[in-house]
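I am still getting used to backbone structure tokens and would like to learn alongside you. To get us started, please write out a protein record for me. Once you have written the record down, we can walk along the chain together.
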Amino acid sequence: MATIWKSTNQKSTNQATNNTISGTTLSSWSRQQKQAIATTAGFAIVGLLLAMSACSKQSPKPALVGVSSNASAQVTPATTVTAMQASTAAPLATAKKSPKKRPANVTYSDANSGVSFLYPRKFALASGDKAQPQLAGMGDVLMNVPMNFVQPGGIAVATVLLPEGLYPGTDFASAFFNVNVNRSLSEQECAHFAFVDTRNADGEPVDAEKVKIGSTDMEMTSTFSASAMKQDEKQYYHNYENGACYEYVLGLGTAGYGAKDGIEPVNRDEVFAKLEKILATVKINPVEQEHVAEPTGTSIVRGK
């Protein structure tokens, strides 16, 4: 019985010892495991924090770089295309704007007579020997426009013709500004006219009147003729300068009023105002003079 007891006691002791060892080992391992886990977890947390910190500092940069790169990649072609279009369009726009608008008035200048004046670009001009022949097709008022010098020797310089359709719906037929010069007249003779206005009540000639056109003093007279269908009015101006008598003729022809339906009389004052604007721009430049023998034997002073 004692043996069995001892055996049992020993067995119990051994079990207790084993349990104690096992519990001690388990308890010891658990602490080590906990320490290891805690240490590992600590390092993991620290590493995670460092990684998050690094990401928070570095991640925006790639994002910005990426956005910048993408924006650059996307904007640069568009910008280049826009710049190319702008550079292409700019010369075209410049080319369209580059032609300068032509002035409304044109300057006529004649070295022989010294006459110069301005006239509207839309008006026609005939000069020199071509002046009188070109008047033939412009209506009766412009055919054979007589010079109004008291002595022969007048020379046609230039004629400006107004467009025929300048006053639509009116009886306007034609109008012109004419320049003549006569170097055989004295200053006293230049102040007179071969024919003068006779429209006064008693039919007596009307003396020429002194007028001032621009800064130039001139002598002026006018003529008027009419028929059932046509009317012709001319104004003559004379001034003496450069040793010659200069004549300026302002002419207006009308036709059709009272004979055609829908035709109104043109404003004559308006037409002559346009012609007087041309006259006001006339300048006489000095010219060298020499006596030239005419075929008839008459000596006339002409300008070079």
About this structure: The CA atoms of residues 230 and 255 lie 4 Å apart. The domain at 105-303 is CATH 2.60.120.1690 (Jelly Rolls). The helical segments are 2-58, 60-97, 131-135, 187-190, 268-280.
